[in-house]
Write a structure and sequence with these properties.
Blueprint lengths: L5 E3 L4 E5 L2 E4 H23 L4 H27 L1 H4 L10 E9 L3 E6 L7 H19 L3 H25 L7 E2 L7 E3 L17 H6 L4 H10 L4 H6 L2 E2 L2 H22 L8 H17 L10 H4 L4 H18 L6
Length: 325
């Protein structure tokens, strides 16, 4: 890839096993959890906690984060769709009249778990750690202060997965912009009129037998050069966020190991909330609309409205007065 006009058209599926697809997005979620476990193992070893305690935390978080992320997307961003497609809320499938699931269930396609919201994931993680802390007789904020060190690095993996999925893209920019990226697979609803390919358009236009073949033809065939030129360049906002989240990890990792901030109950968790959601708040200014309730409230995007309470809670935890002894 070269700067100034990046054409981004990766096959989001890493491996196909019969009707199952291993997508980069799903794999990077797994990587995020794996990295988180190893980071927390070092922390728990330092804190003289057992591997059994760590494994219990891991199980609580995996289940609650995935469930929270999914339900967050459903209720915060796309309830209008899911209220009429309830079966798709917790299953990795999507209605598609032209597809067949496992070769005999017509009208659905296997998509993997897509449509996950970070605000929902955070709420799920907090609930998981509350339940875990009660079970292990640990202070909830003590656990949160340590868990966010690992979580910060996991958020980078998720945003990298979004980039491979060509989703959660930025607003349109000129081709001359240094990071301008043309997301060929960024498909939109019919009648959107943004220049992006509409759902199913690639295959209708090219006559290809598979979506991957169709997207490749649009990218490489001179026959479709005019349509390729119509697809707009956008901010690769997923990478902006991802790189910023690496910096959040570095800050938290340093503060945990090199300072006494971990001894101030709630400080590292509060700092994580402030840094993460402030980054998200400002990233939303160059991110295309993700839907949700922003049209009702106006002024800010759904992601910005959802981020504000997290930032406020973080500031309180960082600067709350110490209780008198």
């Amino acid at each position: 890839m070269l700067f100034l006009g990046i054409i981004w058209n990766p096959n989001e599926t890493l491996l196909t096993l019969g009707p199952l697809q291993i997508k980069y997005y799903n794999l990077l979620w797994i990587v995020a959890f794996a990295i988180g476990w190893f980071v927390m193992k070092r922390i728990y070893t330092h804190e003289k906690k057992t591997v059994e305690q760590l494994d219990s935390l891991f199980i609580h978080c995996v289940v609650s984060i995935m469930l929270g992320a999914r339900l967050g997307h459903v209720f915060f961003y796309d309830w209008e769709y899911y209220k009429n497609n309830l079966i798709e809320i917790l299953l990795p499938i999507r209605a598609n009249d032209q597809s067949s699931l496992f070769g005999f269930i017509n009208g659905y396609e296997f998509t993997g778990f897509t449509g996950l919201a970070s605000h929902g994931a955070t709420i799920g993680a907090i609930i998981a750690i509350y339940l875990y802390s009660k079970k292990q007789n640990l202070k909830m904020l003590w656990v949160l202060d340590r868990a966010v060190v690992a979580s910060a690095l996991g958020t980078f993996c998720v945003r990298l997965g979004n980039f491979f999925n060509s989703e959660i893209n930025g607003k349109q920019v000129e081709e001359s912009f240094v990071f301008a990226t043309k997301f060929i697979r960024n498909t939109v609803q019919r009648g959107t009129n943004t220049g992006d390919l509409e759902y199913g358009e690639a295959m209708r236009l090219t006559g290809a037998s598979t979506p991957n073949e169709a997207y490749k033809m649009i990218e490489e065939s001179p026959q479709f050069a005019a349509r390729l030129a119509e697809i707009p360049y956008r901010h690769p906002v997923q990478l902006y966020e991802g790189i910023a989240y690496i910096l959040v990890f570095v800050i938290l990792y340093y503060l945990y190991w090199k300072t006494d901030k971990k001894d101030k109950l709630g400080y590292l968790f509060g700092l994580f909330m402030v840094l993460l959601w402030t980054i998200r708040f400002f990233a939303e200014f160059v991110k295309k609309s993700q839907g949700g309730f922003e049209e009702t409230l106006g002024l800010l995007s759904t992601g910005q409205w959802l981020s504000i309470p997290f930032i406020i809670v973080g500031l309180y935890l960082m600067f709350r007065p110490k209780k008198a002894a």
